[in-house]
Every structure is written in structure tokens, then in C-alpha cells.
Amino acid sequence: MASEPDARESDVPATAIPAPARLSDDGDEDIPVIVEDMLHQERVDLEAGMSPVPRATILLIVACLVVYGRQVQVGGLANAARVIQTGATHRDEVLDGQAWRLMSGAFMHANLEHLLGNMALLYILGMACEHAFGVQPFLFLYVAACIAGGLVTMTTEVPAVGASGAIFGLAGAIISLVYVRRRRIELRDHRVGIVLAIWAVYTLALGLLSPIVSNVCLLGGLLGGLILGAILPPAILIDRRELARRPITRLQGALALGILAVSAILFVPHLR
């Protein structure tokens, strides 16, 4: 009587077992043929399991919408001086001790088109980064990109508003993540690169046309995102719960929330 196959053997995926070597006509053993599926079977799909409701990203979007509504309500877009008065990132004020402006400017916008364009990209890239890195590292990344963009903005006299620097940081983090870990992570839909390129051109054009949108801010955010994207451990490659319990992850979340909270407390009184 034939014995039943061992359960452990039956659980092994067929694609994980290479085809046996064949003997050629002269008796030599042929080299097994490696197909494309065998090369990619260990790679993780960046989009697999991505939630369409990224909670931290949505909270950031809501904050930007509320701030813009308040800008309109108090006449905060009347002119450049009024924009600075209500919280824009500006070198003189930051050097005068108002460091919170490095964050507040990223929640303000120049007009409705500026706001809606940024919020659409923040949703897409925020969803990707929140999924790829986890909630706490994502918030740390966002805050760091805001600050990096704000610091570079201080090389000019231009008052700056807009989340573009932070969003460029998110784009840089995804680019860096996919490139550095290209043997482990697979980006299924490469058309996202086209979308990002179009948005980048639009944002740069807006910066040229608006006196309160800084293009140099984008470079600072992008650089910060590229660096952090290569350093932060990706949650999609390790256990999310274990990552969330790490002291460094908790520290990142605490720093991000602390900076956001203090900046908000100091910023809100100026929106009047």
C-alpha cells in the first residue's frame, strides 16, 4: 500500500521548488532554467494591503483644510504682509525666535487650486508612506520634511506657504525606499511616476507665478525625504506590531506629535 504524502511537503508552494536538472544527450547535467517568476517570488508588492483610509494622512488633510478656511475668513490672503502676519514661514520671523513657523507655513496655502492640488497628492503619497513605514515613522517623516523645506526657504526673503515641501519629502522617501530595497520591494504600477512628474511641474510653475510659494522649499523637503526613506525601516518588510513597540519608533512618534502640538498652540493665535 502506498503511503500518504507528508503534509509538510504538500504545503510547500510549487514555485518555490526548482525544476530538477535534466541530462543532455551526452550525459552531462543541464543547468536548471530560471524563469522570471522565480526571481520575483520573494519580493513584496508595495501596494498589497494598502488601506484606502490612511488615518494620519486624513488628519493632516483636515488640518490643512481647516487652516485654509480660517485664512480666507480672516483675510489672511490679502497680500504678502498679511500672509506673514498670519503664520507663513519667513526668515526674519524664524530668526527672531518664531521657530514654529517652520511648521505652520506647511499647513497654509496660497489659493484654492494650490490647496486642492496638494491635498490630492498628500492623500496618495501619504497613503503610500503610512503603509510602507507605519503611522509613527510616517508622522516623523512628514514633520522632518516640513522642517527641512522651511529651513531651505530661509535662504530667501520669500514668505512661503504650502504643504508642497512635505509632499516632496514623501515622494523622496518612496523613491528612496523602492530604490534602496529594490531586491525586496516591487512597485506594481509605474505610472505613479508620471503622475508625480506632472504634479512636480505644476507645483514648480505655481511657485514661479505666486509670490508666496517657494520652490526652494521643495528641494529641502525632497532631500529630507530621500535621506529618511533610506534609513527608516519599512513596515511592509517586518512585523508591524513589533516595529510599533520599538523605543526608536515610539520616540519618533512622540517627537512628531510634540512638534505638531507646540507649533499649533503658537500658530493658531496668529490666524486672526
Description:
It is found in: Membrane. Its EC number is 3.4.21.105. The chain has 13 helices and 2 strands; from the N terminus they run ααβαααααααβαααα. Helices cover 60% and strands 1% of the residues. Helix 3 (55-73) runs antiparallel to helix 7 (112-133), helix 8 crosses helix 9 (164-180) and helix 9 runs parallel beside helix 11 (216-231). It has helices at 7-10, 36-40, 55-73, 80-85, 91-95, 101-104, 112-133, 135-153, 164-180, 192-209, 216-231, 240-245, 247-267, and strands at 44-45, 185-186. The protein has one domain: Rhomboid-like (Rhomboid-like fold, Up-down Bundle), CATH 1.20.1540. It is mainly α. Strands 1-2 form a two-stranded parallel ribbon. It is globular.
- The CATH level-2 architecture is identified as Up-down Bundle
What is the global morphology?
globular
**Number of β-strand runs:** 2
| Alpha carbon gap, first and last residue | 88 Å
Annotated CATH topology: Rhomboid-like fold
* Low-confidence blocks of residues: 1-19
Number of helices: 13
Secondary structure class reads: mainly alpha
Instruction: Return the average pLDDT rounded to an integer.
Output: 85
- SSE run: HHEHHHHHHHEHHHH
Q: Main sheet, how many strands, which sense, barrel?
A: 2 strands, parallel
Give the percentage of residues in beta strands. Answer: under 5%
Q: Which homologous superfamily in CATH is the superfamily?
A: Rhomboid-like
CATH class term: Mainly Alpha
The value of Rg in angstroms is: 24 Å
| Biggest sheet: strand arrangement | 1-2
Helix fraction, binned, reads 55-70%
Oligomeric grouping of the chains: single chain
Number of domains: 1
